[in-house]
Amino acid sequence: MRKVVLFIASSLDGYIARPSGEIDWLFTDQDYGYTPFLESIDTVLVGRTTYEQILTFGEYPYAGKKSYVFTKNPDRTSDQNIEFVSGDVTSLVKALQSSEGKDIWLAGGSALIRDFMHHQLVDQIILSIHPIILGEGIPLFVNAIAPSSLKLTQCQRYDSDLVQLSYDVKDRTQNKTIPD
Questions:
Q1: At what angle do helices 110-118 and 89-98 cross, to 10 degrees?
Q2: In DSSP terms, which residues pair with 154 in a beta bridge?
Q3: Which domains does the chain have, with CATH numbers?
Q4: Quick one: how far is CA 110 from the chain centroid?
């Protein structure tokens, strides 16, 4: 069964972007495991706002990988790499997990992460914590997130003082969920 992996970076105070959506504070001086991670996945799941932010960087960086953009307005034009979807998140993810392929990357943003955590669809979290305090911004986890127990599987410290933590999400059937 394919895993859904939340591979993401945050500031020490838990923000994934500035209030404007900017991520200029992210370290780009080395790979931080990004290239091997990209090789381990063939599907990208992303929210519409994050997708539009990605497009400001230039050419779509995940060409060749199937991408699903979750939106409340699916009247956008899909292509060979990107499919715009709305509606039942759980059914789509369960279908992807049971199909052949590599792991699935939940790339963000916070509202989509909240939905995935709420529906217990995340199997693994790889969090790169940058040694910076932003003070405000877009939080990694928004309010009303489902409780989840995690098992630390790896901790990597880099010379830049970035710390990367890898967690498996434990048996979620024992966790309480929040109502819809």
A1: 80
A2: 166
A3: 4-24+36-159 (3.40.430.10)
A4: 8
User: Mean per-residue pLDDT for 56-64?
Assistant: 87
What is the 3-state composition of the chain as percent helix, strand, coil, each rounded to the nearest 5? 20, 30, 50
Average pLDDT over residues 93-119: 95
Query: Is the Cβ–Cβ distance between 114 and 142 less than 8 Å?
Result: yes
Q: Is 169 left (phi over 0), alpha (psi -120 to 50) or beta?
A: beta
Alpha helices per DSSP H over 9-81 = 34-39, 48-55
The predicted pLDDT at position 36 comes to 96
Instruction: Pull the structure tokens for residue 140.
Output: 């990694």
Q: What is the pLDDT of residue 32?
A: 96
**DSSP annotation string for 107-144:** EE-HHHHHHHHHTT---EEEEEEES---SSSEESS-SS
Q: What is the pLDDT of residue 171?
A: 63
Tens-digit pLDDT profile for residues 22-31: 999 999 999 9
